[in-house]
Amino acid sequence: MKVLAAMSGGVDSAVAAARAVDAGHDVVGVHLALSRMPGTLRTGSRGCCTIEDSMDAQRAANMIGIPYYVWDFSERFKEDVVDDFIAEYAAGRTPNPCLRCNEKIKFAALLEKALDLGFDAVCTGHYASIDYDADGNRELHRASAWAKDQSYVLGVLTAEQLEHSLFPLGDTPSKDLVREEAAQRGFTVASKPDSHDICFIPDGDTRGWLAEHVGSATGEIRDREGNIVGSHEGAHAYTVGQRRGLNLGVPAPDGRPRFVLEVKPRSNEVIVGPKEALAIAEIAGTRYSWAGQPPQHSEEEFACHVQIRAHADPVPATASLTQNDETGEPEVVVRPHTPLDGVAPGQSAVLYVGTRVLGQFTIDRTVSAVPVGASA
């Protein structure tokens, strides 16, 4: 099989490419240039996709003995990931740029180009597994190492994309074993730290970056009853569940801390309240997709687990595909058996049945388990 190996410059993608070669595939390595500032150098373990990463990927490809190319996807990345990130925050939502990058770049733009060039599949260093149902349809599953499992950020993959995806690290019990293998192969990236934070905000100052790109405007902080309890200099700087940095001028009647419950960009307001009000009894979204075959009779409630963050624990729930009362659009509605904590619109909810990724949706609305006026 002719395989295009996406090589980020990290240890995972290097080992994944090497394993694809060991499996007998005809492999070509490619590094995606996503930064619009190609002179940027990597700092510590922050960010990725820099010149240093490109050079690390090339050294690994040379050692494996495969052709290596750099493809400029910076314009597509800006439009589909960076601009989307800005727009979502401007609308008061909290997006997941890594999940969007997988959806729009690595398994859309890259895979489309790979197929056009005659490749059969794209190989990445994600920790996830592909299995088959009784009819031979591909299914996306959690990696064997749950601590490193990355199936959450791959929940956007469709059945067609899964047909052309390879995840050679899915059965590896731990990241330490991958590093040991990299060292045995002589890869210089064997001890390279993992990247973290948002790759296009390498200094980690998300608030400052958003202030520059979204702008700041003074607004009011209100409690759930509508009373003004403080002010802010930019609603985008606040996220649901936030406690620190609120600088409220009016203490809560019971003296307890208050948390951000909602961000309203149109009125430029931030709503705060007690921690108990962060408990969410229902989430729903119209932007959904199924990772492989959709569930049978999805219009009826079915049992599943829902995960709302990359490193969150999955929660037992029931889900169904129904119709939004206001728009008439189909939407996925999930009711967790125990309330979810601090859910923000814009987050991605990934549904699991056992280890299988069933699908995902972007959360458009939430229903609090503690109605306004109820005793918290």
Automatic annotation (TrEMBL):
- Give the gene symbol: mnmA
From the UniProt record, give one GO term of the biological process aspect. Answer: tRNA wobble position uridine thiolation
InterPro entries annotated for this entry? MnmA-like, MnmA-like_C, MnmA-like_central, MnmA-like_central_sf, Rossmann-like_a/b/a_fold
E.C. number(s) listed in UniProt: 2.8.1.13
- Superkingdom of source: Bacteria
Q: Which residues form the tRNA-specific 2-thiouridylase MnmA-like C-terminal domain?
A: 282-359
User: One GO CC annotation, please?
Assistant: cytoplasm
Which Pfam families does the annotation name?
A: tRNA_Me_trans, tRNA_Me_trans_C, tRNA_Me_trans_M
Q: Write the protein's name.
A: tRNA-specific 2-thiouridylase MnmA
Q: GO terms for molecular function, please?
A: ATP binding; methyltransferase activity; tRNA binding; tRNA-uridine 2-sulfurtransferase activity
HAMAP family with a match to the protein in the record: tRNA_thiouridyl_MnmA
Q: Which UniProt keywords apply?
A: ATP-binding, Cytoplasm, Disulfide bond, Methyltransferase, Nucleotide-binding, RNA-binding, Transferase, tRNA processing, tRNA-binding
Reaction(s) catalysed by this chain's protein: S-sulfanyl-L-cysteinyl-[protein] + uridine(34) in tRNA + AH2 + ATP = 2-thiouridine(34) in tRNA + L-cysteinyl-[protein] + A + AMP + diphosphate + H(+)
Taxonomic lineage per UniProt? Bacteria, Bacillati, Actinomycetota, Actinomycetes, Micrococcales
Q: Which SUPFAM superfamilies match?
A: Adenine nucleotide alpha hydrolases-like
UniProt cross-references to Gene3D superfamilies, sorted A to Z: Adenine nucleotide alpha hydrolases-like domains (2.30.30.280), HUPs (3.40.50.620), Translation factors (2.40.30.10)
Its biological purpose is as follows:
Catalyzes the 2-thiolation of uridine at the wobble position (U34) of tRNA, leading to the formation of s(2)U34.
